[in-house]
Amino acid sequence: MAMNALAATSRNFRRAARLLGLDSKLEKSLLIPFREIKVECTIPMDDGTLSSFVGFRVQHDNSRGPMKGGIRYHPEVDPDEVNALAQLMTWKTAVAAVPYGGAKGGIGCSPGELSRSELERLTRVFTQKIHDLIGTHTDVPAPDMGTNAQTMAWMLDEYSKFHGHSPAVVTGKPIDLGGSLGRDAATGRGVMYATEALLAEYGKSISGSTFVIQGFGNVGSWAAQLIHERGGKIIALGDVTGSIRNKAGIDIPALMKHRNDGGALKDFHSAEVMDSAELLVHDCDVLIPCALGGVLNKDNAPDVKAKFIIEAANHPTDPEADEILAKKGVIVLPDIYANSGGVIVSYFEWVQNIQGFMWDEEKVNNELEKYMSSAFQHIKAMCKSLDCDLRMGAFTLGVNRVARATLLRGWEA
Ligand SMILES: NC(=O)C1=CN([C@@H]2O[C@H](COP(=O)(O)OP(=O)(O)OC[C@H]3O[C@@H](n4cnc5c(N)ncnc54)[C@H](OP(=O)(O)O)[C@@H]3O)[C@@H](O)[C@H]2O)C=CC1
Ligand SMILES: O=C(O)CCC(=O)C(=O)O
């Protein structure tokens, strides 16, 4: 059983605040979100009935710039989860050194059970309800679980009806509407750079290491492809429909083709089906959760066999699991660094939109690598000076940057 997402995230924040010796009032104030929005989105369904879905946008902090973060469509979206994810975005944008604050949104729905036209109506109604609270220089949404470039295209179109054409109001858009080359792959590519950097610290490399990946959506599939390209052996993979394994390594390009042809993961011919409950505790060098939060908790952490965990998902490891994993000597690379490639390239997209100038993909990828590498060096420096693990290294780096910006603006208790 996982901890409540907000309690878990806030616990990590408080540990970082104490390590930094933050003033207790500043600590309290940094935890409180700037604004929490809840809206009812009522839409006609294809069968003529009406359905109502609850949508949220939590704007956590804007001391370092416009608030930034994805929109999630998932049945488990709830206010605490969105609040936790918004807070994580504040620390993540600071760790990545992109000039943003943090926000997150979501709608409680099952996107796989809605038709394309129902999804479009839902996205448009949600945008109508929040359009006056988002904007290029206030709050810039992006895709997250269950949403994609098409969702951002509908948001952009709906927002533009009220405010005129505003490409920089969302990122992760289709290229034809001002999206950035490389954004689709960016989170997975950032995960690959982060993995390379961490393994190198231990004299290891992607090539020659074995990987288990949970989630085969945007982040998981790109991470798998890029790790496979670099010679990593992905020996087990799972999504919501089931899990598969192959000791010799799963042929990722063939799996991508199978999936793009409409095949389910569990029906892939050259791998055997395995119990999904075993996936996270499967023997491997590197475990990469790329789906839901709280999947590593006190119940399964004692059985984890991976030596390294790269948190591509947001808050996949709860604090109780963190303690167990640390005792076992498992090295955990935290979400607010490991999956920051998405928001870094979102920043490049926003910059390109504001400048009205498009970068080529090589420039996007090179700049992403520079940002990821610089953040890793800064996290290591924090770990060294505060004698802490990577999660606290990343949290103290992010929290300290936000605290400094807050104080510079003239915060008073
Ligand atoms: N997209 C981005 O740029 C970023 C995403 N993230 C984080 O990465 C994670 C994945 O996001 P993203 O790839 O965009 O989302 P997608 O919706 O594209 O993919 C999610 C994947 O997770 C799988 N999944 C869902 N529920 C379960 C479950 N219970 N067990 C196993 N697998 C499951 C889905 O399976 P199925 O396809 O069968 O439903 C799918 O393969 C999230 O935590 C998100 O917050 C972090 C930073 C940026
Ligand atoms: O690209 C973005 O703006 C945010 C992506 C996101 O939601 C995340 O990093 O969790």
UniProtKB/TrEMBL annotation:
Pfam families: ELFV_dehydrog, ELFV_dehydrog_N
CDD domains in alphabetical order: NAD_bind_1_Glu_DH (cd01076)
Active-site residues, as the UniProt record annotates them: 104 (proton donor)
InterPro entries: Aminoacid_DH-like_N_sf, Glu/Leu/Phe/Val/Trp_DH, Glu/Leu/Phe/Val/Trp_DH_C, Glu/Leu/Phe/Val/Trp_DH_dimer, Glu/Leu/Phe/Val_DH_AS, Glu_DH, NAD(P)-bd_dom_sf, NAD_bind_Glu_DH
Residues binding NAD(+), per UniProt: 187, 218
GO terms classed as biological process: cellular response to nitrogen starvation
Reactions mediated catalytically: L-glutamate + NAD(+) + H2O = 2-oxoglutarate + NH4(+) + NADH + H(+); L-glutamate + NADP(+) + H2O = 2-oxoglutarate + NH4(+) + NADPH + H(+)
Residue ranges of every copy of the Glutamate/phenylalanine/leucine/valine/L-tryptophan dehydrogenase C-terminal domain listed in the record: 180-410
Metal-binding found in the keyword field: no
Single GO molecular function: glutamate dehydrogenase [NAD(P)+] activity
Keyword tags: NAD, Nucleotide-binding, Oxidoreductase
Sites marked Important for catalysis: 144
Gene3D superfamilies xrefs: Leucine Dehydrogenase, chain A, domain 1 (3.40.50.10860), NAD(P)-binding Rossmann-like Domain (3.40.50.720)
Chain sites annotated for binding substrate: 68, 92, 346
Record has Ribonucleoprotein as a keyword: no
Similarity-based family: Belongs to the Glu/Leu/Phe/Val dehydrogenases family.
Protein name: Glutamate dehydrogenase
Taxonomic source organism: Urochloa decumbens
